[in-house]
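Fold this complex.
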Amino acid sequence: MGYAIETENLSKEFPSGFLNLKKKTSLEGLSMQVENGEVFGFIGPNGAGKSTTIKLLMGLIFPTAGTARILGKPVSDTAMHRDVGYLPEQPYFYDYLTAAEVLDYFARIHDLKVGDRQERVQKMLKKVGLETAGKIQLRKYSKGMLQRVGVAQAILHDPKLVILDEPMSGLDPLGRREVRDIILELKREGKTVMFSTHILSDAEMLCDRIGVIVGGKLRGVGAPGQIVDIKARGMEILFEMKGSSSAPLLKNAMQTGDRYRLHVEENELYPAIEQLRGAGARILSLSQVKETLEDFFLHLVATDRAQAAAVEVSEK
Amino acid sequence: MKRIWIVALNTFREAVRDRVLYSMVFFAFLMMAAAVVVGQISIGIEDVVIVSLGLSAISVIGLLIAVFIGVGLVSKEMDKRTLYALLAKPVKRWEFLLGKFGGLLVTLAMNTLAMAAGLFLAMLYVKHSLHAADLVVLVAVYFIWLKLALVVALALLFSCYTTPLLSILFTAGLYVVGLYVLELRDMPLDAMKPGTAAFVKAFSYLLPNFQNYDVMALAAHGRVVPGSLILSNTLYTIVYCTIVLSVAAVVFSRRNLK
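Structure:
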């Protein structure tokens, strides 16, 4: 079976400047595949091209070049939307409707039968924690509540592929946790999930693979561990010590009350532990310090900005 | 077809829950009440005054609703981004457009009928009875509704490719020009160069003809509106709306939603 999402050399330019005579490239030659049944994170800073890609996939905007297929069908085929759920970035719905009415409206569009429709609507409201607010008009909803409605309408018709544009945006910690649980549940059900985010911990926690996009270009695709080539950057020792000591390592440790946090290279770990125990310290924990996705991400953004600045200088 | 109906129903529901609409209809009833007062001081021509003022009120309020809500049908959905979630469902863009058009048409039909009922009540109050000849007022109301359908189609077309303000200006401008289209056709073209004359003639037929819908004078005097005019106006509206909506669908199907 083919890919859930497949793009080839997908590019998008928007007219810009006075009289729209200039072109601004938002996406450049994107070629990638999302496997069936995986959770794929699309990460990048604001303006990197994440939403542009998703809108191209959803047929909301049209590519300047390249092609995209969803579940084997070209994105121009409206029928592919039957099996796809989509949460727009900062979603907004008809504010004169209640959450239950909006979901019922979309369920009708998806051709769900009357009985199924009511059952699905109630189930979705419960799933996103809006069962008590279902009869309130959306004009009275907070941003976080609208985001929950957005998630509910995206999964209402039990789609095979769910595409979420910044699903955690505007949510409180509880809401974020609920959305994370929904994504994991969708994965357990065998659905494919693609979501964009700039919250890297979410991507690290949820994704089988991630794609990093910066400045409209895909900079890498792979498992979070692979893509950042995670290396241990040393070890962290957390220990407790009462009173003073002349152990030389203590100079490098960060102290909070009786507790100390000490960063050492991996090959210095055991001598350090011995020295600390000799000084009367009680070791509380040892942990490996790794390069994070965030480090990788910030490095890419910095490189991209430096390149852009260099081009600007050479053009002058 | 089913999806068009679902979108239309939602558009109607939006209009029904919009307080602005009620205030407009209330204003129309106020104008009819004023017509009763004016009619009472217009000795001998009460009927004419009431029908003329009543139909004018229905037409003006209908036009305001058609232009302002018509322009907002697409642009509001794009500005608020309510369209994104909908068009990511199995809905074709032309189905969305037709649904919006149909929804506003149903809304306008309900409003126009409600205001027409108000007008008949006003007529009954002044004349103490209604006659078969008064049914011509219903034909005039039907023509107003046809005219509004054409206005909504034009508003929808303009809002598919330009800003709401420009859409309002273009729609209102075309409506005003359409009121004088027969004068344009009757212009002495002999003084013009043959090419220019042919262009003016052809252009006058491209413009929407809103003059044909005006039977207010006939209705006010209780005269019969010819059946051929009812048929031709109905067909003209269907054909013109189909063309305008087809162009709107082509324009909208190529539009990037930012």
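Chain A has a mean pLDDT of 85.
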